[in-house]
Design a protein that fits this description.
Length: about 160
């Protein structure tokens, strides 16, 4: 279990979700100003918290993917884990555009439910390869559930 860390692979694995998140933020620039004027549900966090939480989640996601990638497992298990991993990254990217740029809150909520399902599939498959890879995905699941609450409430209130 004292395997040497492959720093190049680790950096790439962390960079991929951070890049997806950064591009999403770039395409939705100024959206937090629009978000701030919407009627907010109880428990809505301040706007500054979103980029902080998402950055942490992207790093955890990257570390989880690194662990899953570097843990010896069958090619089938690795492929089965990484297909939904990359699909959920795409769904994550487009949710922000649907919600913020298009203001299609109801569609964004349905999209978020699909995203959540894909994250759960990814988490289970990562867990089968290495439990720590799965454990590191759990905060992401929790935050997306919370985001679902916010999304649905905003759709209802606005």
């Amino acid at each position: 279990m004292n395997k040497k860390i492959n720093y190049k692979s680790l950096i790439i694995c962390i960079a991929i979700p951070l890049l997806v998140g950064g591009l999403s933020a770039l395409f939705t620039m100024g959206s937090m100003d629009d978000f701030a004027v919407l009627d907010q549900p109880p428990l809505s966090p301040p706007g500054w918290l979103f980029p902080v939480v998402w950055s942490i989640l992207y790093v955890l996601m990257g570390i989880a993917s690194y662990i899953a990638l570097e843990t010896p497992s069958s090619q089938e298990a690795t492929t089965a884990a990484f297909k939904p991993y990359f699909v959920q990254l795409a769904f994550n990217f487009f949710w922000s555009i649907i919600f913020f740029n298009l203001g299609a809150f109801e569609i964004a909520f349905i999209w978020l439910l699909a995203l959540l399902a894909i994250i759960v599939i990814t988490t289970v498959r990562f867990w089968r390869i290495n439990k720590w890879a799965g454990i590191l995905m759990l905060p992401y699941i929790a935050w997306v559930c919370f985001a679902g609450y916010l999304n649905l409430a905003i759709a209802y209130l606005n």
